[in-house]
Amino acid sequence: MDVQQFLIRIDAISVWVGKAAAWLIIGLMTLVCIEVFKRYIMNMPTAWIFDVSNMFYGTLFMLAGAYALAQNAHVRGDFLYSSLRPRIQAALDLLLYVLFFLPGVAALIYAGYHYAALSWRIGEHSTVTAEGPPIYYFKTVIPAAGVLVMLQGLAEIARCIICLKTGEWPRRLKDVEEIDVVAEQLAHSEHIDAQTREDAIQRAQDIDRAARQRGRGGDIET
Q1: What is the C-alpha to C-alpha distance for residues 197 and 202, in angstroms, rounded to an integer?
Q2: Residue 10 C-beta-side C-alpha neighbours within 13 Å
Q3: What is d(CA 53, CA 38) in angstroms, rounded to the nearest whole number?
Q4: Radius of gyration (Cα) for the chain, nearest Å?
Q5: How many whole angstroms separate alpha carbon 108 and alpha carbon 120?
């Protein structure tokens, strides 16, 4: 297995976890709908649903971190960055990863592990509401998410080193993006002619490509 394949394997882990965590949205929506119905229609509010909803949202938020990093989707101020050559981009990224990312995520894993271990030892329950549900499962997600982000971060550091050597960004595993959905909807539209449809799809792709300019070196479709 070469370095490129290894990086894609790590991307695949992050993407899989992110997609699996996305199913929590359905559970969260279901809980909220149930609570709204019980609270405002039946006048029978359920206290534990508030805690569980927070845990669902928090779990989704944390487990999506590695996925967002794998897709280069974290928010960044790139009004200058996007115009730089790939080697300069890689040098800046590598510096920031070493100075901020590695210490920060390592601290998250370390503190999160002890935070979760204490919660398991005392059988911690939520104190936000009366008779709150157990939260040690939820706190275990903190170090687990940190490990996933660290793994993906190491892959990104490897990408920076490769780019410094070759002058090109290595490929990454590409997931479906919002622009792909727009293109598919336009492709099946019956209200515009074929040429107009193709022009609109091309313009949308050009705009998205310009907004995400970063020299990814040819993404691999999932």
Answers
A1: 9
A2: 26
A3: 15
A4: 22
A5: 18
**The one-letter amino acid at 78:** D
Q: Whose CA is closest to 126, among 57, 59, 55? A: 55
Record the tokens describing residue 172, joined without a space. 């990454």
Q: What is the CA angle 8-68-2, rounded to 5? A: 15
Sign of the CA dihedral 63, 79, 102, 100? negative
Query: Using CA atoms in the order 150, 152, 154, 157, what is the torsion angle rounded to 10 degrees?
Result: -130
Helix, strand, or coil here: 125? Answer: strand
- Rounded Cα distance, 174 and 67, in Å: 11
Enumerate the H helices of 71-135 as residue ranges: 86-96, 102-122
178 membership: H or E segment, kind and range = helix 178-187
Spans in the chain with pLDDT lower than 50: 215-217
DSSP 42: S
Among candidates 86, 84, 73, 64, which has minimal Cα distance to 16? Answer: 64
Neighbouring C-beta atoms of residue 143, cutoff 10 Å: 20
- The pLDDT tens digits for 95-148 are 999 999 999 999 999 999 999 999 999 999 998 877 789 999 999 999 999 999
Contact 53, 28 (CB under 8 A): yes
* Whether the Cβ atoms of residue 133 and residue 180 lie closer than 8 Å to each other: no
Q: Which two tokens stand for residue 154?
A: 């190491």
Residues 85 and 81: their CA atoms lie apart, in Å, by 9
